[in-house]
Amino acid sequence: NNNPIGTPTTLDDKGQGSITLPANTSGDQVGVVIKDGTNQSPATNIEVPLLAPQLGAVDTPTVQLPVTGKPGSSAQLQDPSSNQTGKPLDDNGQGVVDPATGNVLVTGKPGATVQLQDQSGNPIGTPVKLDDQGHGTVTLPGNTSGQQVGVVIKDGDKESPVTSVAVPLLAPQLGAIDPATGQLPVIGKPGSVVQLLDQKGNPVGSPTTLDDKGQGSLVLPPNVSEEQVGVVIKEGNTQSPVTSVDVPLLAPQVGTVNPATGQLLVTGKPGASVQLQDKDGKTVGTPVILDAQGQGVLTPPVSTSGDTLQVVQTSGTKPSPASEAVSIPVLKPIVGAVDPKTGTLAVEGKPGATVQLEDATGNLVGTPVILNSDGKGVLQVPVTQSDKPVVVTQTVNNVESLPSAEITVPLLKPLLETPDAATSTVAVTGKPGASVQLQDKDGKAVGTSVILDEAGKGVLTLPVDTSGDSLTAVQTSGTTKSPASDAVSIPVLKP
Fold for domain 173-247? Predict the structure, then answer.
């Protein structure tokens, strides 16, 4: 069409000079004319071979590398070993390496193929065919960061010379986040360090060093659930552009149940509600709202001792995947207060567990009880334990819990045996060292009091004039008086 192409050149004093052919004239026939004032020579035509693509400088913030070549041809990056790197150029630009996406825009011969190569000439990545405008896009793999790669254009059996380009530190390429594990696959420069960043650019969690293939994974803390985070690659003092990713609602992270307190530390999304559930997904216990740091404490019910539970967090109406399973140890039973009139102590634990009273030194006290299907039972505290501390343990599958909180037994009512008419006496059991006194139905003292021995045993003498009466007994320890014992009927005594 006789339209000017490129920039004119002025010949030197010897009539010599050179013209640089644009890369997109590859395979075309072009003409050259000489102009002198208003005079122009006839055109000399020349067939243009497949030229090497022309590359700009890599723009680090955008990781773009401008490339110009034969229209329709394909441009491809290569690593130092001439392996293909990434995809050939697309039709949205002119061959600039975008460090954020790894895309390189290439211009060349329409319909030609662009291929990346490593330094040994091996193809890297997938070749790209240039469109009818001679444009295409090659995507550089993240693990080519810091390397020098080549771009060649192929048209049929013809291949252009290689144009080399130095690849900057590219933004990391990210996989999909696994909401159950919080793991995020990352690809980047081999041996470099990848770091998770919050929305303010502050580091989150621990960095990871990529392997010799440029692969690795980051573990996202559950308190970044439903936020946008960034990932950068660091090498020395150089940092790549940030690749952002939206984090789904992750499974909460759980600690280990403390058998002494029964508490379970949970970490998740700040403000989310966390809930224990059993293996069938049924809720267990009471949910907890996590604090501003995404932390909270769940208390597994004592009835779940020996079970395996999980935790889910809910944000709005959306539940997360379940946490890793948590093994609940045999927890301390929950105990009420000792009834001073009956000497009974209510206990809660795992259904079917055996609960046992122990004294302050760990010796067994009284008779053990098996808890019912609701995990409830009642222990009878021996009267000899009056004014003493006791604890309760539960045993599940031969595993004994830690002792419950210490309970101080009040001064219990003494226990009267059946009166002996032959000896006019009645045996009594109570607190060792306590004073025991008979009394009538009006609460008046009857007969002489007795000090119980170290086993809490004693014998009261029945006055003969109490024959046929109904009497009770009370024990006194210091200034504390117990409730009255159950009444006993006094037989007719010998005169």
Answer: Immunoglobulin-like (2.60.40)
